[in-house]
Design a protein that fits this description.
The protein folds into two domains: about 5-125, no CATH class; about 140-260, no CATH class. The chain is about 40% helix and about 15% strand. The protein has ten helices and six strands. It has helices at about 5-10, 20-30, 35-45, 60-70, 75-85, 85-95, 105-115, 120-135, 230, 250-260; strands at about 140-150, 170, 175-185, 195-200, 220, 245. Strands 1, 2, 3, 4, 5 and 6 form a six-stranded mixed sheet that branches. Helix 3 packs antiparallel against helix 8, helix 5 (about 75-85) packs across helix 6 and helix 5 (about 75-85) packs across helix 7 (about 105-115). Keywords: DNA recombination, DNA-binding, Transposition. This is Transposase, IS5 family.
């Protein structure tokens, strides 16, 4: 049994359980860690027979650190600092500063690049959704669709000193944005995300709806940006059995407010 440090003992004996600790405890139980490790190990531990150098940091630890980065939206350097600062994060990752250090920002960057190179982020998403489905957490009663702009600085350029061709400019309200757009499908009952598609920021929300829903969804809910989505789902216009439930546009609501009725 590993002996705990004085800092860990002091942390465990405190009376208040923080929101971060509660959240991480829930994620410890909810995320199928061993399933993810089994799925990603072939790409993370290729045949290294005869190779020199330090062995890679354990996949289980790097996965937990990667999840922390996504949950708390931290840059690599900020993530490294946060783990040093937070005993709750260190306990979640399994790091004891008395005997080891936190992986540096460069290591975190390389791990993200490894995931991108082998399309492992999509594999992670699929494995987690499969696990949730097996637990009966997807009700399949309906889907809520939405989209959010993932903005980047217009000056962002790649190694060839060119803008990323996948990023485009778009206008929302009176504000212009440059970057990507995440199109998301969420289970209408549980609120769990089951579908994600990334496009350039200028792609219309409604055009991606067919990639976000299930064939057996009873209802599909969207905001005014999804007006006319029945066409993209091969439904007849104004069909009485349409699954589409779209919010009215702001102008139509204003007319109702201004009417004498």
């Amino acid at each position: 049994m590993k002996q705990i440090s004085f800092a860990q003992a002091e942390h465990q004996n405190k009376k208040k359980v923080t929101r971060r600790e509660r959240f991480l405890a829930q994620m410890e139980t909810l995320v199928p860690w061993q399933r993810l490790i089994d799925a990603l190990s072939p790409s993370y531990f290729p045949n290294s027979a005869g190779k020199r150098g330090r062995p890679p940091i354990g996949l289980a630890r790097m996965l937990r650190i990667y999840f922390l980065q996504q949950w708390y939206a931290l840059a690599d350097e900020a993530l490294e600092d946060a783990i040093y600062d937070s005993q709750a994060m260190r306990d979640f990752v399994g790091i004891d500063l008395a005997v080891e250090s936190v992986p540096d920002a460069t290591t975190l960057l390389r791990f993200r690049h490894l995931l991108e190179k082998h399309a492992l982020t999509q594999r992670i998403f699929e494995e987690i959704n499969a696990h949730l489905a097996e637990q009966g957490l997807f009700m399949r009663e309906g889907t809520i669709v939405d989209a959010t702009i993932v903005a980047a600085a217009p000056s962002t350029k790649n190694q060839a000193k060119q803008r990323d061709p996948a990023m485009k400019q778009t206008k929302k309200g009176n504000q212009w944005y440059f970057g990507l757009k995440a199109h998301i499908g969420v289970d209408a009952v549980t609120g769990l995300t089951h579908s994600v598609v990334a496009t350039a920021a200028n792609v219309a929300d409604v055009t991606m709806v067919s990639h976000l829903v299930h064939d057996d969804d009873k209802r599909i809910y969207g905001d005014a940006g999804y007006t006319g989505m029945g066409k993209y789902l091969d439904e007849e216009k104004d069909a009485p059995d349409s699954r589409c439930c779209v919010a009215a546009k702001r102008g139509a609501i204003k007319k109702l407010d201004d009417s004498p009725m």
